[in-house]
Design brief:
six-stranded antiparallel beta sheet, mainly beta, 1 helix, globular, 117 residues, three-stranded antiparallel beta sheet
């Protein structure tokens, strides 16, 4: 019996991520350990994010009719497990939790209990 390939590759639920676009994060592992930056984009399907100023790489751009070519520096993506959110109160890396604030589910800092916007 054959399985439908389009159904088996789909995930049932979207993952809840501990970082969002605009968050201040610190890299906790890898060659960029200790660096801080702002999340510019998140890729939930790959569990990766792009952090401003972290994991810089050089990309060779071919010249086109309207733009000159050359070597451009840009950020590469980094795995979410290597990122930790920075507590807005103490400015230290912290784990995050979720709790209901009225009718809304909000993220909060486990270190200080501060709600993260």
């Amino acid at each position: 019996m054959k399985k439908n390939p389009s159904v088996s590759n789909q995930k049932r639920f979207a993952p809840k991520l501990h970082v969002k676009k605009g968050d201040q994060v610190m890299v906790i592992a890898g060659s960029e350990k200790g660096k801080k930056g702002e999340v510019t984009s998140v890729f939930p399907d790959k569990n990766r994010a792009i952090v401003q100023g972290v994991k810089m790489m050089k990309k060779h751009i071919k010249p086109t009719q309207d733009a000159a070519g050359g070597i451009e520096e840009m950020e590469a993506s980094i795995h979410l497990s290597n990122l930790m959110l920075i507590d807005p109160k103490s400015k230290q890396p912290t784990r995050t939790g979720r709790k209901f604030e009225g009718q809304k589910l909000v993220r909060y800092s486990k270190k200080s209990g501060e709600i993260i916007k």
